[in-house]
Amino acid sequence: MEKIVGDFDERFRAALIILYGSSSAQGRNDLLGIAIALICALSYAAYMMLTRNVSVKYGPVTVVKWMFLFAFLIILPFGSGGVFQLPIFGAETEIPAIGLLVFSLIFSTLIAFFLMPVALGRLKASTVSIFMNLQPIVASVVAIIIGQDFFSWDKVLATLLVIGGVYMVTQTTSNK
């Protein structure tokens, strides 16, 4: 029960970073973005719980290979229509833009998903999902460093609360 309370506590604290961030520009539909982020987090948690046994049984390459194949087949009907009309695929695209795209695909996606089965094979799915809550902290720090967001004390408070929640849940796990 403590682990469930700690996990919800962390998600609430991560939401503080998102909701009370003092960004320089407001989106047109912030609540929709938050709802999509919540659905993404819940889907990811379900994915980790469902694939834990598969990750223990098979190697990371096998898990990632099949996961990307099925994801590609599922998204193909929805995303194939206008993908090549995007500016990134135009003749005016510069090398740095392509480099950033490749960097995002390799480091943010491929390596992260490749390491996930490794983590699930060694840790409980709940422990792995707990550390997913650290992503808003990293995103906030990077946004502040590159000038896309501003430092504020509510971010510091939310960061400390998220880290405290991660600590509580990992302590509960290690004490049992």
Tags for this model:
mainly alpha; single chain; globular
Give structural notes.
The protein has one domain (2-23, 40-76, 85-175). It has 7 helices and no strands. It has helices at 2-19, 30-57, 60-79, 95-122, 125-132, 135-145, 153-175. Helix content is 77%, strand content 0%. It starts with a helix and ends with a helix. The protein is mostly helical.
In short:
With 176 residues, the chain is mostly helical.
Query: How do the SSEs run, as a string of H and E?
Result: HHHHHHH
Q: How does the overall form come out from the CA principal axes?
A: globular
* Average pLDDT figure: 74
- Based on CA atoms alone, the radius of gyration comes out at 18 Å
The overall strand count is 0
Counted up, domains total 1
- Give the count of helical stretches: 7
What is the helix content?
Answer: over 70%
Distance between the termini: 12 Å
Which residues sit in consecutive blocks of at least 5 with pLDDT less than 50?
Answer: none
Instruction: Find the structural class using helix and strand composition.
Output: mainly alpha
Biggest sheet details: none
Strand content: under 5%
